[in-house]
Amino acid sequence: MTPPEAPRDGTANHGETPPAVSVCASTTITVLRKRSDFLKAARARRQGAGSMMVQALKRAEGEAQGIRVGFTCSKKVGNAVARNRAKRRLREAARLVLPEMGRPGWDYVLIGRPTDTAARPFDALLDDLRRALRKLHAPKP
Q1: Which of these, 13, 64, 81, 141, is most buried using a 10 Å CB contact count?
Q2: What is the torsional sign of CA 126, 73, 30, 54?
Q3: Distance between CA atoms of 102 and 136, rounded to whole angstroms?
């Protein structure tokens, strides 16, 4: 079986880059890159989970399509190796959970926590993200 980013027929043109997002996902997920997008999400709703903090912002109409997600870890998480490991785990969790529980038209920022993000069992990390998303999207009382 070929990976999702590989062409289905096994052929590719020279210089053709695979898509950054899995072709299996029904919803388009893109990665936040601009600092201004992170700052907007920081002023929006946030929900703590055991191994991460999740910030969520409903975008204005016509601003962008699909789900957008960003990842960040401060130096409190550890050295560069520890921060990168935590972000890799957050990226994989987002790849698995956001297509099913994320909402199009929303931006999400996943923030790693010291020791918890890297050390928590991966199934628990996924459950933390699911729980945080349920709480963020629950109707306000």
Answers
A1: 64
A2: positive
A3: 10
Q: Cα(78)–Cα(108) distance, rounded to whole angstroms?
A: 23
Domains parsed from the chain with CATH numbers: 29-137 (3.30.230.10)
The C-alpha atoms of residue 94 and residue 99 are separated, in whole angstroms, by 8
Q: Is 46 exposed, middle or buried (0-12, 13-18, 19+ CB in 10 A)?
A: middle
| SS3 labels along 64-100 | CCCEEEEEECCHHHCCHHHHHHHHHHHHHHHHHHHHH
In this structure, are residues 47 and 8 in contact, taking their beta carbons and an 8 Å threshold? Answer: no
CB atoms within 10 A of CB 91: 14
Q: pLDDT for 28-80, tens place per residue?
A: 788 989 999 888 888 888 888 888 999 999 988 877 788 999 999 999 999 99
* Beta strands 52-58; 106-112: pairing state: antiparallel
